[in-house]
């Protein structure tokens, strides 16, 4: 399979999909097109399933029941009902609806596998799923229902149910309406599932993989932003840039992520009058770990994200179903639906996200403490005592970090047997993905608070020095963008909207883009 984005169009063909393709469909509503070559391959493989369906030899999922009921032979006149019953019974999710982008990623990845010619569905099945995506129709998928093994069963079943003209779905406007009405408006005919097709629609790691790919994209942006906010904190705390010199990193400790983060911080601090002001006559020997070791922590996070991307890329190359149609036509049962590879890195990234947030919070706290901030007023308040400044912003940050530490407890070490002990070990990868999304969101907010704190500290340095101590060009560019919508130092005011705006700027990439005006592209 290959999926290439061209003018907001993704074409499924025979050589693979990329993480960028998934993001384009999930978040930017890129149109999906199936190549004639892929559809022909699907049609060709379907012929094997048709032969098995008419054979006297039982074949799992084609002429038998499912899971612990696999020993039950299903007569031919009941097999359409078998597929319908599978989807209806497996659409057993509960809880709040998951995000639209998650559902779109899940559906696109399942369509990718269906189009690979390894699942045995008819072309109409994959085409209908693509048509639903392109119409902007989003099945309602509930939070709970997947154990990350035998695929993301309930989430995928809720999507398959919509292809049948049943279940719950929202239109392109986000309003939940009757599924038959939504399909009719889009000119989509509900499908009548044939042998094997119900199973093929639900037996994949698509939900957890889609969330992993989006988390990787988000973390790449946030880790670069963390280098920027850490560098601004170094300026705010009169720290040194000498610990970020390249000869201290790749030459002495060759972790590529560490070297990349140190390089980012050094470039953000380049030509900073604040940093230059205390290179001579400063009695401090070393900065605190939260400043000095920022590249070591963020760099290790970068290397972990790279490892996660390697796993995700391998999973993208997979065609996961059970049973699966092999190139020679054999239909073989397997265990490739087990989500362990994806679940492990989802949990690993939750650890990373929590720790990067933790070190950022420590830098924030240092800037607010007059005993450690090297001359800044308590809590960066306009009139300490009368004003509380950013005191409670740090409380919010601490709460976010604490939540992320809780979310860092791995889901993949848990397993609750299901299906009458037939499925006696599961990955819990869906749950690992759900908590990672929350952790990444927490990290973004933590960095927004560090951004607000560091820029206020820099503004105060400038004011206290009668304009002599100013940030470097990168810091000045970030300040300009932030100050367009977020005020600087002054009397206490309603703070929450300013923190939310800083969060928006971080998440949109505006802060990174501002710094890169001075530094050029950052790592």
Automatic annotation (TrEMBL):
<comment type="similarity">
    <text>Belongs to the PAL/histidase family.</text>
</comment>
<dbReference type="GO" id="GO:0019556">
    <property type="term" value="P:L-histidine catabolic process to glutamate and formamide"/>
</dbReference>
<comment type="pathway">
    <text>Amino-acid degradation; L-histidine degradation into L-glutamate; N-formimidoyl-L-glutamate from L-histidine: step 1/3.</text>
</comment>
<dbReference type="InterPro" id="IPR001106">
    <property type="entry name" value="Aromatic_Lyase"/>
</dbReference>
<dbReference type="InterPro" id="IPR022313">
    <property type="entry name" value="Phe/His_NH3-lyase_AS"/>
</dbReference>
<dbReference type="InterPro" id="IPR008948">
    <property type="entry name" value="L-Aspartase-like"/>
</dbReference>
<keyword id="KW-0369">Histidine metabolism</keyword>
<dbReference type="GO" id="GO:0019557">
    <property type="term" value="P:L-histidine catabolic process to glutamate and formate"/>
</dbReference>
<dbReference type="InterPro" id="IPR005921">
    <property type="entry name" value="HutH"/>
</dbReference>
<keyword id="KW-0456">Lyase</keyword>
<dbReference type="InterPro" id="IPR024083">
    <property type="entry name" value="Fumarase/histidase_N"/>
</dbReference>
<dbReference type="Pfam" id="PF00221">
    <property type="entry name" value="Lyase_aromatic"/>
</dbReference>
<dbReference type="GO" id="GO:0004397">
    <property type="term" value="F:histidine ammonia-lyase activity"/>
</dbReference>
<protein>
    <recommendedName>
        <fullName>Histidine ammonia-lyase</fullName>
        <ecNumber>4.3.1.3</ecNumber>
    </recommendedName>
</protein>
<dbReference type="GO" id="GO:0005737">
    <property type="term" value="C:cytoplasm"/>
</dbReference>
């Amino acid at each position: 399979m290959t999926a290439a984005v061209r003018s907001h169009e993704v074409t499924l063909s025979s050589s693979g999909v990329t993480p960028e393709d998934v993001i384009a469909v999930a978040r930017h509503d890129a149109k999906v097109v199936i190549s004639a070559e892929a559809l022909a391959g699907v049609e060709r493989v379907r012929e094997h399933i048709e032969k098995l369906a008419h054979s006297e030899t039982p074949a799992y999922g084609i002429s038998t029941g499912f899971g612990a009921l696999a020993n039950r032979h299903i007569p031919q006149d009941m097999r359409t009902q078998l597929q319908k019953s599978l989807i209806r019974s497996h659409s057993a999710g509960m809880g709040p609806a998951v995000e639209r982008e998650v559902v779109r990623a899940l559906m696109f990845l399942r369509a990718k596998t269906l189009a690979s010619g390894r699942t045995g569905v008819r072309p109409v099945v994959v085409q209908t799923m693509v048509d639903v995506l392109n119409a902007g129709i989003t099945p309602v998928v509930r939070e709970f229902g997947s154990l990350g093994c035998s695929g993301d069963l309930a989430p995928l079943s809720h999507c398959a149910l919509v292809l049948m003209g049943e279940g719950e779905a929202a239109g392109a406007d986000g309003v939940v309406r009757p599924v038959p009405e939504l399909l009719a408006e889009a000119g989509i005919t509900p499908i009548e599932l044939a042998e094997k097709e119900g199973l093929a629609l639900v037996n994949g790691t698509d939900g957890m993989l889609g969330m992993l790919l989006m988390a990787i994209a988000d973390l790449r942006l946030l880790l670069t932003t963390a280098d920027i906010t850490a560098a601004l904190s170094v300026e705010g705390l009169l720290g040194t840039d000498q610990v970020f010199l390249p000869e201290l990193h790749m030459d002495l400790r060759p972790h590529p992520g560490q070297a990349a983060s140190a390089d980012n911080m050094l470039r953000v601090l380049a030509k900073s009058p604040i940093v230059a002001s205390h290179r001579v006559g400063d009695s401090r020997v070393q900065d605190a770990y939260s400043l000095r070791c920022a590249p070591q922590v963020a760099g290790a996070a970068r290397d972990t994200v790279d490892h996660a991307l390697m796993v995700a890329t391998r999973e993208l190359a997979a065609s996961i179903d059970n049973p699966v149609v092999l190139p020679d036509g054999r239909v073989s049962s397997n265990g490739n639906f087990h989500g362990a590879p994806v679940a492990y890195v989802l949990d690993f990234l939750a650890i990373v996200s929590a720790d990067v947030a933790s070190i950022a919070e420590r830098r924030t706290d240092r800037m607010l403490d007059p005993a450690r901030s090297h001359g800044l007023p308590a809590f960066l308040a306009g009139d300490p005592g009368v004003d509380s400044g950013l005191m409670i912003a740090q409380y919010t940050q601490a709460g976010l970090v604490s939540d992320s530490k809780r979310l860092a407890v791995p889901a993949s070490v848990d397993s609750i047997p299901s299906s009458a002990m037939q499925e006696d070990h599961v990955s819990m990868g869906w749950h690992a993905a759900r908590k990672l999304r929350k952790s990444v969101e927490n990290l973004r907010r933590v960095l927004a608070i560090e951004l607000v704190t560091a820029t206020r500290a820099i503004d105060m340095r400038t004011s206290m020095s009668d304009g002599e101590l100013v940030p470097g060009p990168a810091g000045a560019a970030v300040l300009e963008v932030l100050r367009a919508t977020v005020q600087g130092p002054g009397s206490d005011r309603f703070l929450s909207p300013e923190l939310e705006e800083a969060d928006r700027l971080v998440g949109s990439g505006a802060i990174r883009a501002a710094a890169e005006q001075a530094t050029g592209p950052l790592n």
